[in-house]
């Protein structure tokens, strides 16, 4: 009877250890959600009207933009992105909103455009090599190709005994 209780006790302990390991193992792979950029408030964004608002009223309503146009101050951009990832994986975008507010030269709102994640261009690298211009040389040509070229005439190396003055005797 005593032996039976030891087996059941050790079984319970093993079950408890197994459950703890399972809980700790799954908590390390939790989903991480992050938000980057402007916090979009649909009511405030919809209140910006072309022909009615100007730069000052847009700044008062939406705040300073994420960034402005590089040339001139005609365009303001408000960028918002939601990301999701598992513990150690690369984050992937779930949602993105780019609010583009365009102004005329007088500073009045001309248009308010919205772009989402579907408008983002996906760039895929081509192959495993980057094509380059120039000579195509093998590994051995790269390693041994300069033998004998060091100090050759016209290469800027020490081809002769010249002094700093330029001529053989400093003249």
TrEMBL record:
Which keywords does UniProt give here? Cell outer membrane, Lipoprotein, Membrane, Signal
Which species is this record about? Sphingobium baderi
What is the top-level taxon of the source organism?
Bacteria
- Supply the InterPro entries for this chain: BamE, BamE-like, BamE_dom
Gene Ontology molecular-function annotations: protein-macromolecule adaptor activity
* GO CC, alphabetical: Bam protein complex
Keyword Membrane attributed: yes
Per the database record, which ranges form the Outer membrane protein assembly factor BamE domain? 37-110
Q: Name one GO biological process term.
A: protein insertion into membrane
Name of the featured protein: Outer membrane lipoprotein OmlA
Q: Which residues form the signal peptide?
A: none
Tell me the Pfam families matching this sequence.
BamE (PF04355)
